[in-house]
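Re: the pair you flagged

First of the two:
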Amino acid sequence: MDADRADFERFATVEAPPSSPLHASLASIVARDDSLLALVRGRIVGEPGPNLLFGAVHRRLADRRDHPLADFFPSISGVRPVDGDLEKHFRAHAVPVVTHTHVLSKIPPEGRRRLDAVFVDASKGRRVHRVGNDFTKADGGIYAVEPRTYVDGDFRRAVVARCDGHATWIEWLGSV
């Protein structure tokens, strides 16, 4: 957990401050709390914990624009400056996130259905977000990036970006 803590501390003090005081503040909150750090434990080495966690939070807020935390995210619904309520609202909103690097398009359909069944079962009574590189191929060799959100035994997906097959470029499609 020390490496995760160091990642969030670096994000809070070096990476985020020039462009996002919000993300710098959130990273500082996570770096101080083992239970929040546990949300990114077990990810593949090299996957950026702050980006994964904050991306999942952003995605969840897109579905819950009425949540008080959304007021801090200009891209969602608000322009509220960072204040003492940020930590309380962030803790109330923290979510399980599962990441993987296996390319699901290379797994037979039955294997993908079994994997989806695991996430559907895990989502009973809570929200689970799955972020991975299981792109759906569109026209012209362009792929759609579709993270999934599992809720109470069902799932939703939304196209959030387009990219080439090896993700050497990505075009974000805006807020979903």
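Second of the two:
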Amino acid sequence: MAHIGFLPVYAKGHMYPASTLALHLQQRGHRITFFCIADAAAFFQEYGLDSVVIGGASFPPGYVDQVFATLGKMKGQAGFLYTMRLFKNLIDMHFAELPEAIRNKRVERLHPPEILRLAWTRTCMNIVRPWTSPTHVCGS
């Protein structure tokens, strides 16, 4: 059986279905590993799923609650730009840390939708729209 790695979106609406799929795959004999930030690791471990914490320096425990508290006070373009900066930082961390983490765990396959999400988000980050610029979205 295969060793399958998951790269979840760090929101419960994404983590529940990903963990359900992972549990079904695990029951069929596959080995499952989630690569996630500290705030998500306990969720997957609670279900008996292996997890590897990545981004510990940039995304310490409590990070997700802090982000949602800050974002909840924002409106309009400010909230959008804040979210895009968060996505950029998260994607940059994934590209910096995931290859080594995946090699160390000897993962054979990655859950495809999560890979596509990273590639799509990265592509969108490079699109310049008339109402914003890469400097506004990504910082200087």
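The helical segments are 12-27, 38-46, 63-71, 76-105, 112-125, 134-138.

-B.
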